[in-house]
Amino acid sequence: MANSLQDQLLKAGLVDKKKSQQIKKQKQQAEKLQRKHKVSTEDDKVDITAVRQAEAEKSRELNRKRDEEAQARAIMAQIKQMIETSHINHDKGELAFHFKHGTLVKQIYVTAEQQAQLERGQLAIVSFEDRYRLVPRIVAQKIAERDAGLVIFLNEPGYAGQHQADEDDPYKDFVIPDDLMW
């Protein structure tokens, strides 16, 4: 059976017996301390620091996501408050106002005054909580700053009645009356 390096050095006379026993005793004490107190070696320290850094990075990422979600909830609460405080009741309208939402054509019932304001760009239509609401232009612009997808219909001021006729349009001589209801 092969002797340990320490025994070989002792036989060769390079190390004396007292020094050999002292080194052996220190090694045993270090192992005992490591088992008892879990004192880590250099490799363990490196592993522990790497694990701690990974945990810190993970917690920073979770905190960042949590902050983003809280900010999104705060923005939605602001939008809800703006809509609730400034929406215009359109339940009593008798005219159907048609508008495009995505690929669908939707309609809401408005009064004649509200229809004119929508055409002039003074009112806008926003979609919130699966309902369409009429809000003033200023409120719609503030909502669009926070979430542009909620503003469904908003004409530019002065847009009504300024349709540009094409030169080759065969119906350019026929004017559509303002009081025509479809």
From TrEMBL:
Q: Spell out the residue ranges making up region: Disordered.
A: 17-44
Q: Which InterPro entries match?
A: DUF2058
- Compositionally biased intervals (Basic and acidic residues): 28-44
Its domain of life reads: Bacteria
Q: What is this protein called?
A: Nucleoprotein/polynucleotide-associated enzyme
Q: Which organism is it from?
A: Gynuella sunshinyii YC6258
